[in-house]
Amino acid sequence: MAEGAPQETPGGGVDVLACRVGRVGVALPLENVVETMRPLPIDSIAGTPPHVLGLAVVRGAAVPVIDPAPLIGGEAGPAARFVLLRVSGRRLAVAVSEVVGVRRLSPDGFAALPPLFTGTGAEAVAGAGIEDEALLVVLRCGRLVPEPAWTELEGAIPAS
Predict the structure, then answer these.
(1) Distance in angstroms (rounded) separating the CA atoms of residues 39 and 127
(2) What torsion, rounded to 10 degrees, do the Cα atoms 144, 150, 15, 73 define?
(3) What is 14-145's CATH topology?
(4) Rounded to two decimals, what is the model's pTM?
């Protein structure tokens, strides 16, 4: 399974943190979630993909901040919360409109995306389905920041 993709639990299903980005529901694998917090100031960095808002200082370290709206075709809006994730030893924050809560998703209810999705968005989205009669997009945390963008962001972090 891809890095940062949701892992099935022994009882079946996937544990996720359900959030909203505008009107779209997104699910982040719970195994990657460190904490949720109020949004912090963001310093933008030139040359990063449109969904990378820039860097925020979280607990004394510079962390990339991601807006998933461009990845899922949603409308960007003000972030009410950051969800801090740890993926492959790196930390990143996802800006969301609302944190809904922890859910266990049945793998039967989610399908691989059709070939309509292309580019970075397709790489970052693990699947989509319906949860409580609303669209829920499951994100692949390890694909939210492409490797070239990590290199660009790490180069922008001042040495301490």
Answers:
(1) 27
(2) -10
(3) OB fold (Dihydrolipoamide Acetyltransferase, E2P) (2.40.50)
(4) 0.79
What is the tens place of the pLDDT at every residue in 102-139?
A: 988 876 666 554 544 555 556 677 766 666 666 677 77
Q: At 75, is the secondary structure helix, strand, or coil? A: coil
Cβ count within 10 A of residue 89: 5
**Alpha carbon distance 80, 96 (integer Å):** 6
Kindly give, in sequence order, each residue whose CB lies less than 8 Å from that of residue 51, ignoring residues fewer than 6 positions away: 66, 67, 68, 69, 70, 71, 120, 144
Q: Where are the domains of the chain?
A: 14-145
The residues near 114 (Cβ < 8 Å, ≥ 6 apart) are none
**How far are the Cα atoms of 49, 57, 103, 133, 145 from residue 124, in angstroms, in the given order?**
13, 24, 20, 23, 8
- Average pLDDT across the chain, whole number: 79
